[in-house]
């Protein structure tokens, strides 16, 4: 939880750096001519909300665009998840045992946004307590999301479906032994990216299903179950 809190605070501090500014060149009545950054994507008829700002230029005013502006070309995300999984342990001799486990994980990802699709690498840290043993896990892989609406400045809600595939390295300990294993992890999920305050900052709840298999020297673990997660995302 301390790591999650630090992650949230980091996003709050770095988020202002993602904001973009426009310069007012000319004002006549209730109309104005503005200069926008080259990478800012706006269209005719689009409504922009401009927040107040300090006087930063020689014309005597400045302000950051807070809605309908900015860029969403790339994203950095931090995700916290709770996993309720059932597992099966199979030994080389054919013996099987089953059980349930609760897993907490922290995930960091970097992605490219192409409007209808987003993809990129992901790193995951997990801690698992199955009652009789404890384990830590590190995953490295990638994700792909299909957006049901084009993810562009001005859109405040983007429903999406995604898949995440990673390779896991697991270390497990019990009262009598310890072991290391590895194997594939697959997540299939639905999410909804929400932009309640700005075009560059989103929160994204997620519901999905996870499957993973770990191979050890003398046995194999297979896990599957539901995953509930939430992400904090910064676009730039």
Indicate the multimeric state.
single chain
The biggest beta sheet reads: 8 strands, antiparallel, barrel
Order of helices and strands: HEEEEEEEEEEEE
Strands of the biggest beta sheet: in what spatial order?
5-6-7-8-9-10-11-12
Distance between the termini: 27 Å
Essential attributes:
single chain; 236 residues; mainly beta; Porin; 2 domains; four-stranded antiparallel sheet; 12 strands; 66% strand; elongated; disordered N terminus
Describe the 3D structure.
There is one protein chain. The protein has 236 residues and is mainly beta. It folds into two domains: 20-67, no CATH class; 72-235, Porin. It has one helix spanning 2-14; strands spanning 21-28, 31-35, 49-50, 63-67, 74-91, 96-113, 117-129, 133-147, 157-174, 178-198, 201-215, 219-235. The protein has an eight-stranded antiparallel β-barrel with strand order 5-6-7-8-9-10-11-12. A four-stranded antiparallel beta sheet has the order 2-1-4-3, with no helix packed on it. The chain is elongated, with a radius of gyration of 23 Å.
Topology:
Elements: H1 2-14, E1 21-28, E2 31-35, E3 49-50, E4 63-67, E5 74-91, E6 96-113, E7 117-129, E8 133-147, E9 157-174, E10 178-198, E11 201-215, E12 219-235
Antiparallel strand pairs: 1-2, 1-4, 3-4, 5-6, 5-12, 6-7, 7-8, 8-9, 9-10, 10-11, 11-12
What is the compact description of this entry?
The chain has 1 helix and 12 strands. The chain has one helix at 2-14; strands at 21-28, 31-35, 49-50, 63-67, 74-91, 96-113, 117-129, 133-147, 157-174, 178-198, 201-215, 219-235.
């Amino acid at each position: 939880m301390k790591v999650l809190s630090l992650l949230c605070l980091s996003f709050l501090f770095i988020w202002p750096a993602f904001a973009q500014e426009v310069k007012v060149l000319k004002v006549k009545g209730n109309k104005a001519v503005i200069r926008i950054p080259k990478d800012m994507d706006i269209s005719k008829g689009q409504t922009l909300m401009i927040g107040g700002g300090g006087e930063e230029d020689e014309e005597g005013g400045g302000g950051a665009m807070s809605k309908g502006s900015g860029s969403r070309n790339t994203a950095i995300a931090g995700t916290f998840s709770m996993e309720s999984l059932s597992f099966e342990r199979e030994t080389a001799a054919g013996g099987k045992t089953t059980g349930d486990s609760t897993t907490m994980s922290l995930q960091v990802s970097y992605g490219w946004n192409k409007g209808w699709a987003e993809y990129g690498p992901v790193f995951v840290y997990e801690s698992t307590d199955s009652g009789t043993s404890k384990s830590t896990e590190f995953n490295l892989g990638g994700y792909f999301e299909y957006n049901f609406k084009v993810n562009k400045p001005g859109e405040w809600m983007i429903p999406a479906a995604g898949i995440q595939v990673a390779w896991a390295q697991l270390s497990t300990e019990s009262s009598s032994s310890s072991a290391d294993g590895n194997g594939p992890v697959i997540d299939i999920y639905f999410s909804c990216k929400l932009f309640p305050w700005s075009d560059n900052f989103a929160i994204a709840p997620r519901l999905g299903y996870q499957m993973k298999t770990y191979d050890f020297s003398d046995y194999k673990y297979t896990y599957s179950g539901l995953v509930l997660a939430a992400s904090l995302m910064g676009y730039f």
